[in-house]
TrEMBL record, chain A:
This is Acyl carrier protein. SUPFAM superfamilies: ACP-like. It comes from Streptomyces bohaiensis.
Automatic annotation (TrEMBL), chain B:
SUPFAM superfamilies: Ferritin-like (SSF47240). This is Diiron oxygenase. It comes from the Bacteria. The lineage of its organism: Bacteria, Bacillati, Actinomycetota, Actinomycetes, Kitasatosporales. InterPro entries: AurF/CmlI, Ferritin-like_SF, RNR-like. Pfam families: AurF. It comes from Streptomyces bohaiensis.
Length: 90, 311
């Protein structure tokens, strides 16, 4: 069973544009690098709500909350992404 | 979006402006006719409808059961049960809520384009468009606040970035998708004699104005695409097409709202949303309801393939 952070990593890998040759890393700037756009957010929020089993307060969000995998994990999953190695292939 | 067109100097910009004005002028006859009809059909939303003191969600249908988001899925309530009617009422609230959120974004985008120099020819109609969207929100908001729930949106309006020509195409393409899908639901439900008269009225009133918006949306999207797309580089055209494809996903996802399923009492509303999204019957429903819109976008070359993630 993939961890919650792995599920986010897999989701981003499946949708991101123009990932670098080395693939997705936890500190890759997803929005600044234009790998994801605001159009991906509703689906990403649904995934995060499903993983944490509680709603996300959408009105309080800023683009910075989704900066990279590390930030997403810390903000929404109360998880330190650096402590969770990828356990499944993307 | 970054570098978007070959030759970005002031001469090129002036050329694009002139071509856009010519393209807009070519559709101005249509736009003038739409403005005349809007004036003839002008409606006061505060007088057109008498709101009942209360409604009975367990007794009456407020949403056509066959087009609810759990229809044909393992989570669907028992057919013709009080629970199904309660669920259909929640679906009506969600449908009206997603229309409120969509129209709010639409009104913001329309207001920001009023009297822009290259769009002057359509400013009269933009006034009607804005006015009619605001009236629709009066109906939708009136229903949700009186009897139901105003459900939240998961769309986040972070500031748009990039080239104005790209932003224009994306804005009107998004409006086209949002309105064509909502209108398909309106048409179906306005004709459904099982529905409570209030639900039928709101769907019919919305459809009556949307018929003009749909004509306008197609005309303006085609004019903007034909003007701007030939000047974009291939990477920009691909990115715009990707984003329009993603609009289908974001538009449809709002019809599968876990907050509705939580109010229905489902134990895991997020999993129910995922199950419903992936159910074959729901995939077929989405493809069917997107058909007219897809045919337009494919036949004009705006899209080159169907957005697989949406169906």
């Amino acid at each position: 069973m993939p961890s919650d952070v792995d599920q986010v990593r897999n989701w981003v890998t499946a949708r991101a544009r123009d990932l670098p040759p080395g693939g997705l890393t936890d500190d890759l700037p997803l929005w600044e690098g234009r790998h994801l756009t605001s159009l991906h957010l509703p689906e990403l929020i649904l995934l995060l709500e499903r993983l944490r089993r509680r709603p996300v307060d959408v009105e309080e969000l800023t683009a910075g909350d989704f900066r990279d995998i590390t930030t997403i994990a810390a903000t929404f999953l109360d998880t330190d992404a650096t402590a969770t190695e990828r356990t499944t292939a993307p | 979006m970054t570098a978007t067109s070959a030759g970005g100097g002031s001469g090129a910009r002036a050329g694009r402006g002139a071509r856009l004005r010519a393209a807009i002028a070519a559709v101005s006859g249509t736009v003038d006719r739409l403005s005349e009809v809007s004036r003839a059909k002008y409606q006061n939303p505060y007088a057109a409808l008498s709101w009942p003191d209360s409604v009975d969600p367990g007794a009456d249908w407020f949403f056509t059961p066959e087009i609810t988001s759990l229809h044909g899925t393992p989570h669907q309530p028992e057919p013709d049960s009080e629970e199904f009617r309660r669920f259909a009422f929640l679906e009506a609230s969600n449908f009206f809520s997603l229309n409120i959120h969509g129209e709010k974004a639409l009104m913001e985008g329309l207001a920001s384009r009023l009297y822009r120099s290259d769009l002057l020819e359509i400013s009269d109609y933009l006034h009607h468009f804005l006015d009619e969207e605001n009236k629709h929100s009066v109906y939708f908001g009136g229903f949700c606040r009186r009897y139901g729930t105003l459900y939240r949106s998961r769309n986040i309006p972070f500031p748009a970035e990039g080239d104005r020509s790209v932003a224009d195409v994306l804005f009107f393409a998004k409006a086209l998708l949002f309105e064509e899908h909502a209108d398909a639901y309106n048409v179906h439900q306005a004709r459904d004699e099982r529905l409570h008269p209030l639900a039928r009225f709101i769907n019919q009133a919305h459809h009556a104005d949307e018929t003009r918006h749909l004509v306008f949306n197609r005309a303006i999207v085609q004019a903007l695409w034909d003007t701007h797309a030939p000047e974009w580089d291939a990477a920009t055209r691909d990115e715009v097409r990707d984003r329009i494809g993603q609009f289908f996903v974001t538009t449809w996802r709002e019809y599968y709202n876990p907050d509705v399923y939580a109010d229905l009492g489902l134990a895991d509303p997020w999993q129910a949303a995922e199950d419903a999204w992936n159910a074959p019957s729901q995939r077929a429903h989405r493809r069917n309801y997107s058909d007219r819109c897809l045919r337009f976008l494919l036949s004009t070359g705006i899209l080159q393939k169907e957005p697989a993630d949406a169906f």
